[in-house]
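Good morning N.,

You mentioned wanting to compare the apo and holo forms, so I went ahead and generated the holo version with G3I. This is what I fed in:
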Amino acid sequence: MRYLILFLCVFTACQTPVEPEEPIIPQEEPETTYTATKSLISAAPFRVGVAGNVAGLKEHTETRLIDQEFNSMTAEYEMKQNIMHISKYDYDWVSIDEFANYTRSRGMRVHGHALLWHSAIPSWLENFTGSDEEFSDIMKAYIQGAVSHRPKDVQSWDVVNEAFEDNGDLRNSIFRQKMGDDYIAQCFQWAHEADSSVKLFYNDYGTIWDDRKLTAMLEMLDDFEARGIPIHGVGFQMHITWDWPVIEPIKKAVDAVASRGWLIHFSEVDIRVNEDGGELELNQRLAELQQARMTEIVNLYNTIPEEQQFGITFWGLRDTDSWLIDFWGNVEWPLLFDHSYKHKLMHKGFVEAFE
Ligand code: G3I
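and this is what came out, ligand included:
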């Protein structure tokens, strides 16, 4: 019996044609990075910035990537009021000094962000119970202290960030409640008195996709112009996705500010490619969509008169450094470099805009 089974196995094997081994084709690595031959700052005639933090300055230094790719820096959170303004008339300027010392030795500039932001109010100020007059005195001393601390290094400031609600109403922050509806103009005047060489910006999101907010900002700018309130430019945060908003409303907002002669800063650029959270890793298709979007945004920026180009700042160095991951709670690859500091196709999209 055993021999019969053995015979049948051998016989069957002889009958079944043996398929040739499929050659194992190595899985192509998805093309999401490339070998850069030109840096951002050698490609662009305007300043290119990156948002960072003090710990990151040390961590990233060994790669020299920041020095090679950027000539402007914004503190992602360490130069905000909740960090610097310790109590009524006490301040912590350590972060300003850290950034100023790092950038001074590298010929970079620091863009200060942000003197007033309703999301970065120190708790002791939130709970302030003194008079409105005392509140104003405290804010004036803080603003003038920060602006005059390192003006040769911190050559510009977002004086006020996100003062308008999405519907264009003036946000009812503690600043407005305590200092009145004209608090924004007052803060710009105090900042200018502290050091007239420092460029002063209003910074916001949503002005590139909501006419109500854009109109509110333009009315403020026109009012400031008419009253001689010292302001030099506008920051468009530019937290966008690869396909939203389409370029038309962005162009409309940029043209409206450029035609008024103000400096323009694309101040917090990141480009989401996983807005519905369905992707688990960056693939070539998404990387190429992000590359094309980057080129589109830089092409738009290049339509601004050169003397009004304050710069483009990216809101983080590596994808894994992005605030978006915690904010949205899913993986995302919105920046120029991947976790291992490789240049992504988004970087190529920036450089290609100048070719
Ligand atoms: O790194 C410290 C950590 O050591 C500490 O243990 C921890 C506990 O508080 O805080 C960590 O710092 C956090 C920091 O992000 C780094 O992750 C701060 O708490 C947190 O407040 C900070 O959030 C920043 C946020 O502004 C508030 O300042 C984000 O990084 C920053 O991306 C975000 O940036 C804003 C712009 O200023 C304005 N436009 C919107 C943009 C995104 O919200």
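The pocket of G3I is lined by residues 76-77, 80, 120, 161, 237, 268, 323 (CB under 6 Å).

Happy to go through it together on a call whenever suits you.

Best,
F.
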